[in-house]
Write a structure and sequence with these properties.
Blueprint: H1 25-47, H2 50-64, H3 79-100, H4 103-126
Length: about 140
């Protein structure tokens, strides 16, 4: 009733599976962690937090083997939004650092989360906000 499959399935291993490089779980976590920290570094630099940025850059350099590129690519985002973004990025870095058992990055990420959580309301109070109105309220 059905014709048998005559070609190899895409799910069968290739004859030369060892021809391409494989990364270990630790290497993949290093790459992921360095990426989260590099993104956190960009937001930290945009906020003008030089000392914190230097500490993050040290960890990125340790993970990648080379120092990260730093530039002042400003997004013109308000400070409260930048602090929220930095808080989220530090949280992602903390999760990967905990999975990787990297204590130094975990401590740094937790410190950055605390700093950005404390700075976000203060930045929101300092910035001119639009008046908030409830929908349907007078």
């Amino acid at each position: 009733m059905y014709e048998p499959i005559r070609t190899k399935s895409v799910h069968t291993p290739a004859d030369h599976a060892d021809d391409f490089p494989h990364r270990t779980r630790e290497e993949e976590l290093d790459i992921q962690l360095a990426g989260h920290l590099a993104a956190l570094l960009a937001v930290t630099d945009e906020l003008g937090l030089g000392e914190a940025g230097d500490r993050i850059a040290e960890q990125v350099a340790r993970l990648r083997g080379t120092p990260p590129t730093r530039h002042a690519g400003l997004t013109e985002a308000p400070a409260p939004a930048l602090h929220r973004r930095a808080h989220a990025l530090a949280g992602r870095a903390l999760v990967v650092a905990a999975s990787r058992a990297d204590t130094a990055v975990a401590i740094l990420s937790a410190e950055r989360m605390d700093a950005h959580a404390a700075a976000a309301p203060a930045a929101a109070a300092d910035s001119p906000a639009t008046p908030s109105h409830l929908v349907g309220a007078l």
